[in-house]
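Quick one: structure for this chain?
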Amino acid sequence: MSPDRNGPDSERRLTEAELSERRSRLVRELEERSGTKEKSGPASTSSTGQGAAQAMKLSTEFVAGVLVGAGIGWLIDRSAGTSPWGLIVFLLLGFVAGVLNVLRSAGVVADPAQERRGDRDGRT
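Got it. Here's what it folds into:
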């Protein structure tokens, strides 16, 4: 019987240099097809920094809304003696305000002040 050409015994072993050359050729082809090259240097770190800054801004706006709502509710409970209802109601209102602020900052919801300025300038 003759050995099978496609069998594991007849496979050619690739050297390290051939594998390296194939890998670099594959990377070049992938970059050409995708149209983007891997970024390196200050450009990629600045975009990472901008993303982190945006995340900090959004999280701070959310937390501030919740804390302000909780603070107002706590003050109302202390002065009116309605514990815990003022805290509960204003904590929920603070949560809603925080979510709305995050959505406005992210550009998902339009800012009403900007809409009024646009109407005043004759834009729609």
